[in-house]
Design a protein that fits this description.
With 296 residues, this protein is mainly α. 74% of the residues lie in helices and 0% in strands.
Amino acid sequence: IATIVLGGAVCFAVALARARSVPLGPDVAWQLYVAGALLRGAKLGRDIIEVNPPLAVWLGIPTIRLAALAGASPAGAHGVFVLLLGLCSTLAMAAVGRHLAVLRRPAALAAFCLPSALALALQPGYELGQREHLAILLVMPYLLLLAARLEHAHISSRLAIAVGLAAGVGFALKPFFVLPLGLGLLQLQRERRTPDALLRPETLGIAAVFVSYVAAIVVAAPDWLGAAREFWPLYAAYRPATFFDIASRQGVVLVLAGLAMLAWASTRRAVDRSSCLGDSLALALAGFVLAMLVQR
């Protein structure tokens, strides 16, 4: 575990240094700006029009506040936040992964977690901390936990609740992210075939986050609901994506996702027939690709 955490720290420290050499991506910069405006008393839906759900902005508020107290820039504080989140995600992956059939050996666990940390740290580039990036960091431990459930492995309730709460935040960052969650739960119900298959601590944690999030919007951002209802049709109608747009912007992602799914289908359980890690990751990949296409 110590080797994995140290290796993960190096990966995300390199990513942070790399991100500091380029400007923030426009979406991340906007989220931080809105978070700062909310701290100064602005109201979503009244002073600031933002059609996207407010969770990503709310997550930026503690970062902005701490940056002000420390005399640091919001961009730098945001990078440190993503670094710490990445380390926690790597540690949680290691804690859950050690229960999986193919990752029980320390070398195998490190061989999975360290490349995962490297990819999660460096792949986003200047979009470090974008909502999709935060979602993957928060959800990855849950995907391993889903594989553990499919393998009938025992996971402590405390760990499952912590992983479920984090995953709930990740899935709630965009409405479309319920697609990978739903595919995973359908597979779990299909494999377990019992009425209480979904009544697990992590699932209850995810549900608690969703319910709390809806309540928070109603209480803390009632004006956002009206503004989103009014402006979302305009936002959705702006430059509808054509086949050429999807091919040019997400073509590489679609090709890599297709190759990954092909590799999974051709080698499924070739090493260990009891392993469900590939199944869980493949379902998540399919769900996130669907989410990417639907929101276009």
